[in-house]
Specification:
The complex is a heterodimer of chains A (406) and B (644).
Chain A: H1 5-32, H2 43-97, H3 104-125, E1 146-151, E2 154-159, E3 167-169, E4 175-177, H4 182-187, E5 196-200, E6 209-210, E7 214-215, E8 227-232, E9 237-242, E10 247-254, E11 260-261, E12 267-272, E13 280-285, H5 291-303, H6 309-369, H7 373-398
Antiparallel strand pairs in A: 1-2, 3-4, 5-13, 6-12, 7-12, 8-9, 8-13, 9-10, 11-12
Chain B: H1 2-27, E1 37-43, E2 47-49, E3 52-54, E4 58-65, H2 69-100, H3 106-122, H4 127-190, H5 197-213, E5 216-220, E6 226-230, E7 235-238, E8 241-242, E9 245-249, E10 257-263, E11 266-270, H6 278-313, E12 328-329, E13 334-339, E14 351-355, E15 366-370, E16 375-379, E17 384-387, E18 394-396, E19 399-403, E20 418-422, E21 432-433, E22 447-451, E23 460-461, E24 465-466, E25 479-483, E26 489-494, E27 498-505, E28 511-514, E29 517-522, E30 530-535, H7 544-551, H8 564-604, H9 608-640
Antiparallel strand pairs in B: 1-4, 2-3, 5-6, 6-7, 7-8, 9-10, 10-11, 12-21, 13-14, 13-20, 14-19, 15-16, 15-20, 16-17, 18-19, 22-30, 23-29, 24-29, 25-26, 25-30, 26-27, 28-29
Classes of the chains: A alpha+beta (406), B alpha+beta (644).
Chain lengths: 406, 644
């Protein structure tokens, strides 16, 4: 085969230039630590890397949101824990105050204490997070959600927030509510046994007490109807009247102290003590009673002087009602705290799985983008060897010429 | 004796010519395009005498170049293709490194924007979070602009490169035509069989250079001239006549440069597909292909971001208690339409187009042609043809195409009229943040729901959502839902407009939709229980709309299958694949070109060692021929000295 002189030079230099270009590329990978320096190096991997990077950034954002959510939930939880112990204190005080041997003065001082607790409770209900947002205002979190007005009956507390709840996205599919609106924590506490309330008539003169009662047959209950037990005769018989429909359900029933009364459909309660003729006991469907009202009611009850046996009965009954409502409020708050606890658990378990995902994503990204040093370095040595061979052989081939001998 | 003299003198002359030729070869060993030459020597016609034919020596009949037309043609073709691929690749590599940069690409800016949205969701009333959202929105806009500007710059640079390539082609074509003239003259005057080798080399060299600019096929003429034809059959050089190329504004898209050729006094427009091969072919392919695709794909993402964020933002409520406005803009929904320069100017029909559904957009330009009865739409990215029928408006691929009825009323176009539609081309160019007031970020939902304070049932109400645009004018009216007795049905009363519905059957968890909102009531409400939907007054802590906007990040909004970043990843992978493909083809084409060049050089190139040996051979031949003359002289002297 014939070779022209320029062939020798062209082919030789082309080989050297190619070798240099290849070495340069490996060198660039080694110095940047990246296998992919432009999408054309591996188009599929480049778009996969973008996808992973976005997933990674979303993950980071969710982790940030989880921190925020956890902080917020912890704050709500700790405030509600304060509220719980406050209500437990009030409950203990109420039990003490129920002792009829106390003097009016003793009761008044307990009432004073409870009134102070009420103010403190309003403070808790108006708690803010670190940024000045009110925890229990729903969406309206820039103004205190609970406002108080002082009237004849003591404090009245009004909820000015709404029933919204801010949530944060803590994973692709899960948004966690950061709080619970104040209305459902403090206001929507069902009174009585949850279905109906029992109470002494305001003008009772006897010492009859009525139990809180219970539901015996939910299907027999007449929704929304109120009833009255009216004592007749010499206080040994009573009538049961449905006041909503103004019909007497049962009349002239014989009264037995402490015996269960089941004349009202679906309910059962007991009346004990000695009611007078004309004494009335009211049974009404349970409505919501705010915890503030419960406390204020208790304060008012304790501030009422006790003079007669009927007063004492009334005190015992009213303190009993208050205790029942306090228990209802406590249960409501404990239920809310349980919800908070469950959410915190959920966020914490998400945190754990997200940090695993984080590692997985970063590993995947690194596998796609980062250079494998061991193979890159061995590649570089190989390319160096080839380039050196090309240079050396070029020099020796190109220096051969007949003219050297002429 | 005379015979010997003349044989000797002829041999001297031959050797001299051969040494000269070897010298010429050595001198031109490094001249590009040079083909080595050979002095061809043949035996002279013998003279007949009684004893037989007496040899009359030798003489050099001609000097030929060692050249193979087939190899030359292969080299031209390989060079042309290699130049096209490497030109396309060079430009594409700019796009490649631009979109793929992990810190300068679009993805980080998109991620920042949505992180800003999440931060607003975390503290909706916090102005500093809103500030950082707006800043990240601005940097998203500038990222779109910077990517778009780089692409636009590449386009204008490509247009300039087309002009300079046209200039080079004209120069080369002119030189080739001039050489054709010289060669025809020289060949004619030198007589048959004699060729002006060096002029032929020069012309082959120029034709090879020309093919690096544009593919031009050679047809050899009888008088030694070359005619050159473009791939569409258009003559560029005919013998001694060169046709001039020029540039004008493109008929379809006036911002681009179009190549024309002057035939006589008329200028013919050359379509991009008429110009293939070489640098010019590469530039055309880049402009029509990779560059336009990238601009359209980027524009489509900008439009999708704008439309989807705006649509959700308008469903929200800002810190001033107002409903949200536009967040971004891409300059409205109208689509750029260019009437072809060749359209019938008397009829002068104008067509307009607008985006009807951003989720259906394709990243492509369209050509609309009226064939006399129907409108034919060609999607240029894949050349899919749709017959739109005889009347406009028609909506296709999310664009509504309308006949403009400004003044006078809409007229049908003339047959053959063309329009170019670029729905997404300027999306990224016009992308801007409209929102400037921090308080105007609509993070809250405009409505909220509540359960009545005196409710005795267990019915719970969901937070409620606003239905997609258009907004209902009564959206924020207070609506009360009251359950009947028995609570199997409910009544709906709008505080402003009165009863909306009564005795609606209740299903737990079913959608309840009035006044442009949707919510669900679940559980067992009691008779007389109420639920209200009302304006979200003072709802500054609400982040429902911010969360919905943040959720757009991962929704498949583009063509029903891709999120913003997936669409961008598609663009990156598309650009990457194209670049990779060009790298491979450019390398293989340049290898082919090298192989063709080596093959030609192997045949035609000068080998110095060979020439050195030729020098020695012809030097010896010269010395021997001199000896013939000298011996002839001695012999002649012998005759002269016979009588001494």
């Amino acid at each position: 085969m014939r070779i022209s002189t320029s062939n020798i030079f062209d082919i030789g230099t082309a080989a050297i230039v190619r070798g240099q270009a290849e070495m340069m590329k490996t060198q660039q990978q080694l110095s940047s630590g990246r296998r992919l320096n432009s999408p054309s190096d591996d188009p599929v991997a480049a778009s996969e890397a973008l996808r992973l990077r976005q997933a990674d950034s979303l993950n980071a954002q969710y982790q940030k949101n989880q921190q925020t959510a956890l902080g917020s939930l912890t704050q709500v939880e700790s405030t509600l824990s304060d509220v719980t112990s406050l209500l437990q204190d009030v409950r203990a005080a109420a039990i003490a105050a129920g002792n009829t041997s106390l003097s009016d003065l003793d009761r008044q001082s307990i009432a004073q204490d409870i009134a102070g607790r009420l103010e403190q409770l309003i403070g808790y209900a108006n708690a803010t997070d670190g940024k000045g947002s009110y925890l229990f205002g729903g969406y309206s979190d820039t103004a205190p959600p609970f406002s108080k007005t002082i009237g004849a009956g003591g404090l009245t507390v009004q909820y000015t927030g709404d029933q919204g709840g801010r949530a944060l996205q803590v994973s692709d599919t899960r948004a966690i509510d950061l709080s619970v609106n104040g209305s459902s924590i403090f206001e929507r506490v069902t009174a009585g046994n949850g279905t109906f309330t029992t109470a002494l008539g305001a003008g009772n003169t006897g010492t009859g007490l009525i139990s809180m009662g219970q539901v015996t047959d939910i299907n027999a209950l007449v929704q929304g109807d109120s009833y009255q037990i009216v004592f007749t005769g010499t206080g040994t018989t009573y009538d049961v009247i449905d006041t909503t429909t103004a019909t007497t359900i049962a009349s002239g029933q014989g009264y037995v102290d402490g015996a269960a009364i089941t004349s009202v459909p679906g309910m059962r309660f007991e009346i004990s003590g000695t009611p007078d003729v004309g004494d009335v006991f009211d049974i009404e469907p349970a409505t919501s009673q705010s915890v503030f009202n419960t406390l204020q009611y208790l304060v008012n009850v304790l501030n009422t002087p006790v003079a007669s046996a009927a007063d004492r009965t009334s005190l015992t009954s009213n303190v009993g009602v208050s205790l029942l409502n306090l228990d209802n409020a406590l249960n409501n708050i404990l239920a809310t705290r349980a919800t908070m606890g469950a959410r915190m658990n959920e966020v914490q378990s998400l945190q754990a799985s997200m940090s695993d995902q984080d590692t997985t994503l970063k590993t995947a990204l690194s596998q796609i983008e980062d250079v494998d040093y061991a193979s890159a370095i061995s590649q570089l040595s190989k390319q160096q060897l080839i380039l050196e061979a090309a240079q050396k052989s070029f020099v020796s081939v190109s220096s051969l010429s007949i003219f050297n001998y002429m | 004796m005379g015979g010997l003299y003349s044989i000797g003198a002829g041999a001297l002359n031959n050797a001299q010519i051969q040494v000269t030729t070897a010298g010429h070869n050595i001198a031109n060993a490094n001249t590009p395009g040079y083909s080595r030459q050979q002095a061809n020597q043949t035996t002279n016609t013998p003279s007949f005498s009684g004893v037989g034919f007496i040899g009359q020596g030798a003489s050099v009949t001609n000097i030929t170049r060692v050249y193979d037309a087939f190899l030359g043609q292969q080299l031209r073709q390989a060079n042309s293709q290699a130049a096209e691929a490497s030109t396309y690749l060079d430009r594409m590599q700019h796009v490649d490194s631009m979109v793929g940069d992990p810190s300068a690409g679009l993805t980080p800016a998109l991620m920042d924007f949505f992180q800003g949205m999440q931060a607003v969701a975390a503290s909706p009333a916090d102005l500093s979070a809103r500030q950082s959202l707006l800043s990240s929105a601005q940097s998203l806009a500038s990222r779109f602009h910077s990517l778009d500007t780089q692409l636009s710059d590449l386009r204008s640079q490509t247009n300039l490169d087309i002009q300079s390539s046209v200039t080079s082609i004209n120069t080369l074509a002119g030189q080739i035509a001039a050489l054709n003239d010289s060669i025809a003259l020289s060949s004619a005057s030198a007589g048959s069989g004699q060729q002006p080798n060096d002029l032929l080399d020069q012309r082959d060299m120029l034709v090879a250079e020309l093919n690096k600019e544009i593919r031009a096929d050679v047809v050899a003429g009888t008088n030694g001239t070359y005619s050159l034809f473009l791939t569409n059959g258009q003559a560029l050089v005919l013998g001694t006549q060169a046709y001039t190329l020029g540039t004008v504004a493109d008929a379809e898209n006036i911002r681009d440069t179009q190549v024309t050729i002057s035939v006589g006094t008329t200028q013919m427009r050359l379509r991009p597909q008429d110009l293939s091969g070489g640098k010019l072919g590469g530039l055309m392919a880049f402009r029509q292909g990779g560059l336009t695709d990238a601009q359209n794909a980027l524009g489509r993402i900008a439009i999708a971001v704008t439309e989807s964020v705006n649509a959700q933002h308008q469903l929200g409520m800002d810190l001033n208690g107002d409903l949200g406005g536009d967040f971004f803009t891409t300059g409205g929904s109208s689509v750029a339409v260019t009437a072809n320069a060749g359209n019938n100017a008397t009829v002068n029909t104008q067509v307009s187009a607008a985006i009807a559904d951003y989720t259906a957009l394709e990243p492509s330009d369209y050509r609309l042609v009226y064939d006399g009865t129907d409108y034919i739409l060609t999607r240029l990215s894949d050349n899919a043809v749709t017959n739109l029928g005889a009347a406009l408006p028609v909506t296709v691929d999310g664009i509504t195409i309308t006949l403009d009825s400004v003044d006078p009323p809409a007229v049908e176009p003339a047959t053959g009229d063309q329009f170019l539609l670029s729905p997404t081309r300027s999306g990224a160019t016009n992308f801007a943040v409209v929102l400037s007031d921090l308080r105007a970020v609509a993070a809250a939902a405009p409505i909220r729901t509540a359960t009545g304070a005196g409710n005795t049932g267990t019915g719970a109400v969901s937070a409620g959502t606003v239905n997609p645009l258009p907004l209902n004018a009564n959206l924020q009216n207070t609506v009360t839902i009251t359950f009947d007795d028995p609570p199997g049905t409910f009544d709906v009363v709008d505080a402003v407009n009165g009863a909306l519905a009564s005795d609606v059957a209740y299903t737990s968890g079913a959608d309840i939709t009035y006044n442009g909102w949707t919510m669900q009531i679940s559980g067992q409400p009691a008779a007389g229980d109420t639920f209200t939907v009302s304006a979200n007054g003072n709802g500054w802590g609400d982040n429902r709309n911010a969360r919905l906007m943040a959720a757009l990040q991962t929704q498949a909004l583009i063509n029903g299958s891709a999120s913003y970043s997936t669409a961008y990843a598609q663009l990156v992978s598309q650009v990457g694949s194209k670049t990779h493909e060009l790298q491979v083809s450019s390398e293989s084409q340049s290898n082919l070109a090298t192989a063709a060049s080596n093959a030609q050089s192997t045949l035609s190139g000068v080998n110095l060692d060979e020439e050195a040996s030729n020098l020695m051979r012809y030097q010896q031949a010269y010395q021997a021929a001199a000896k013939i003359v000298s011996i002839a002289g001695v012999l002649f002297d012998t005759i002269l000295n016979i009588d001494r």
